[in-house]
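Troubleshooting log. The previous structure file for this entry was overwritten by mistake, so regenerating from the original sequence record. Sequence copied from the archived sheet and checked twice against the printout by T.R.
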Amino acid sequence: MLRVTLRGAGLPTVTVGTGETLLFGRSPHYAVPEDDPDAAVSVSALVLPRCAPHVSRLLGELTVGDEIARLRWHGAGETQVASLFDAPGGARRVTITEGISLLLDEGENQLVVMRGRKGPDGTFDDLSIVVEVQGDSSEPPPRPRPEGEGDEDDAMATAPAPRLMPQSREWYVALALAEPWLAGTDDYPRPPSNREIYERVLHWHGYAWNLQRSQRVDDAIRSISALAFGPKDDPFRAGAGRAQNVRFAVGRRTAEVRLVTPEDLEAVDRAATRRNVPPAHA
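Regenerated output below.
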């Protein structure tokens, strides 16, 4: 299993995992398939802010498999990629052109789009994008030891609780779903709709993983519910009760078990405020 994070100065940080594809560029949404429901759920698009007008609408197509991350380049301009390699000098920097596909190394890979970002004075700067590839570092659980074997301190050690990965799609959906309880307004008359969840995530993060598609919101809520309740008590597995009541229960449980916290909510609100403040003009 792989997890790939795309980030950079002035860019929203986006993480995708095995089985997902991320399209990025100046205006890449046109390339998201509309007529294939399965592809539409697994493919998302990221608009890179402040791109120069000569930057291609679709720059890159990042596909994450079980063991490899593949980048197919669609940009027409000059671009370089640098990654750490077992080669003389330690690093490799090559120029990539339209139509090239390459496998990304585990660790940091830096893409530099020459003159790809438009500055406030009309000049063009290089656009730097970091693509970090991480393997699943989780280890299989150790073999249970019989009673009385081993040190008593080991048996009393506190294990980490299941959690959502911060800044992931599910983490933001959980914030939107649990917001009434996190903010202390738990007299909210109904759980948020799919549209309201999408709008809150977009406001907080500037990127919403195609959550305007109801299926993506529903899938995220099911994942959150499974983690918050466990398989035995997951209301989606029980198959009873109205959908709105299930969503209400998931929102409340998400706050109760602290999959997201009031501090998380305050942090994303502050980040949204900073991002939406217009730049000062001289």
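The chain has eight helices and eleven strands. Archived copy saved in two places this time.
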